[in-house]
Fold tRNA pseudouridine synthase A.
Amino acid sequence: MRNIKLTIEYDGKKYLGWQRLGDSDKTIQGKIETVLNQMTDETIEIVGSGRTDAGTHAYGQVANFKTESKMTVEKMQLFLNNQLPNDIVIKEIVEVPERFHARYNAKSKQYSYQVWNSEVPTALHRNHSYHYANNLDLEKINEACEFLIGEHDFIGFSSLKKTKKSTIRTITSAKIATKDEMITFTFTGEGFLYNMVRIIVGTLLEVGDGTKEVSAIEEILNQKDRQKAGHTVPAQGLFLDRVSY
Amino acid sequence: MRNIKLTIEYDGKKYLGWQRLGDSDKTIQGKIETVLNQMTDETIEIVGSGRTDAGTHAYGQVANFKTESKMTVEKMQLFLNNQLPNDIVIKEIVEVPERFHARYNAKSKQYSYQVWNSEVPTALHRNHSYHYANNLDLEKINEACEFLIGEHDFIGFSSLKKTKKSTIRTITSAKIATKDEMITFTFTGEGFLYNMVRIIVGTLLEVGDGTKEVSAIEEILNQKDRQKAGHTVPAQGLFLDRVSY
């Protein structure tokens, strides 16, 4: 069997998220599998690097699938991009060794989150950012980002209920960049818990506007208490930028 | 009468353009006037700095209107942004002298045009750019831009039929910038003819991919022949950035 790796860009606005839900036509995985089934006359199941939530976007989600098809990867890419809706694009397609697994082999992921920080909302970037009007102290946010870096139990920054699985994760980079009214938060790490990026951003915004102290980050990590963390910012500002192997 | 100046950002995707057409609810001007009528109980007519085509966007369209209303401009801005659809945003609102006229007093305008230059299309920027897959020689495009600068008869770069009005315009700046696969063309000038920016960009792309020579720009300006110029690129890549007074 050939093993094919896809790098996928998508605008999550119209979808229920990455993961196929029964026969629903409203997931990214479902859309791609439907086209792959047409293309190969097989029943293809693709393995994503991980789920993304309803409304979340990706510049570089990664997935793989096995096939007996003899089609070249160049032809597959053309077929897919012709047949997929224009809010899903196969950016890259390569053949990989049979043992490659998009989820198990993922070494790190980069997510970014866009915040439109102005009293006045944005018309042009409204679908790709979260409007947050409060004045923000970016120095404080930068300080708070430092406390996130390293290996921690991030359960306090997650929507998970108690779980037997480990909730320890490592964040290797957490930073912000600004361009006009847009603030982009970027996080790199080995993996992220459910809603972790969105709750971290909500907490950092509350640090920035003075609702919380910078030290709140350490408290939430130590006390593992979701109640102490900030709000879960909406999915439309979140992007899965890149998955590294 | 008070005279109020609006600076407006909009996503043109769903609209037939700036200018109100009868009772149609599908124009930016129409949408804003409807809300202003509710707000003031008057019949307001707003004057835009100029039209924008169906599908064209704006970061900073400018318009003005006269009113007897005693409302503060801050309250007007809140009312408008609450009532307008979220693809139209009033970014700024100020009271100006009664003689101010958004069209007659406009000294210069800046437009930009986004081209997604890659074999593979873009999912996330698809509504705000034009996908052009051919390889482009950016040096040649830069050279061609130089020929546009200055006072010229731009009728060859316009969709106008013969007209008695002057088709002489002055472009003070024409340049490109790239970020990843996105090329942004930016033009500043005293005013632009109908479709002029879109035909200039289409011509520059054809210079860039080798279909036309750099010298074609001079020929089109001299011969005033629309047939010699490039294709009219689609409206979705075009932005009215700024109007200066």
